[in-house]
Amino acid sequence: MNSRALCLLLAALPMVAVGPAVAQTATPRATPPRAVVPQSATPQSATAQTAKTPAAKSPAAKSPTAKLQTTTLHLTMPVSATNPIGENILAFGREVEKQTGGAVRIEIHEKAELYEDHEVVSAVSSGGVEMGATPLNQFAYDVPVAGVFLQPFMFNFNALVRAAAKPDSEIRKMIDDEILYWTNARVLWWQPHGSTVIFSRKVPDADRAAIVDRHVGAPDESTKDLAKACGGTPHLVPAADLYSALEKDSVQMTMTDIFGVMDRELWRVTDTIVNTRHAPSLFLVVINDKAWEKLSEKHQHILSEAAAAAQERMWEHFTQSEAEAYAFAAKKGIKVREPSAKEVVAWRECSSPLLESYMDRIGELGPKLFAAYGKLRTDPCCNAAAPGQSQFDLR
Q: Which domain holds residue 32?
């Protein structure tokens, strides 16, 4: 690891070794919308406001048969409704509709019916859709500070990720503020979606050297940079196309979250998982800021409360969901290989230039960000290995 990167991490915590561009506006697909959340009221326009009828209005306005005016917020997500993330978003939608008495309704478009994951940020930013769920890595281009979670081996165990993602976390507040400023998207909640691992196909070795001169499918720029820094030949491949690329042998490896084994059916086209867990996979659920401001203060509060509950609910069940993904992989004959401490050191060494490059991109926010990171690593929540997780500081 070069001296500059090492010094900054040591300054944050001695024990740890470790202008934004304007997003292009995405064009929605022609697929008709499908409401996944059960409909309890007749929807009007996507931007209609909740009716506020004074008591002095005509008797017709007081009638129990008066038609309820509904605000419909369309939410696009790249995963299916049966995915843990999809199920959690569905529960959020039901809760919002219940608490608002049907005045606010979330209409969910699953499996990229409207937008692919790499299109969600620009779609929500431009108002093409009111809400979206997409991986955190999709914000890293417009909001460089969000890329801290993508730095290899910095957030490599769940307790640390969960603490950093809490609404009152310094790191979370910093990233949420930057996302709102640069993309016009207000973050409602963060939720985990497994750790990033390496899927490979017909690669005899599974250590760090195995990536050298191999064609690697990279679903985002950060993964592309990591693959290149460690000797691979990266190819930008959207997550939805990883299956096809592996099947055609245009790539032999890819780095994506563990749930890809089920969500993308990668078990059919890979035979090995190297469990590097080098970065967390996090999904953010966001709402266009103008759509948010059109909601009443009461309804904003209801959405915020439902979002906080959704985040905690996901974390409460996350360990089990992640274990099920690994069990599914094993059942399908996928070999899950744990890298040794020596191999992890090799990965850290080849990827260390990425940290210095990242520091340059975030500029004056760097010292504040790494100071907050250092505090977390000395907090009781995050300075000891979790049960069953040995040598976490070397991973």
A: 27-51+69-382
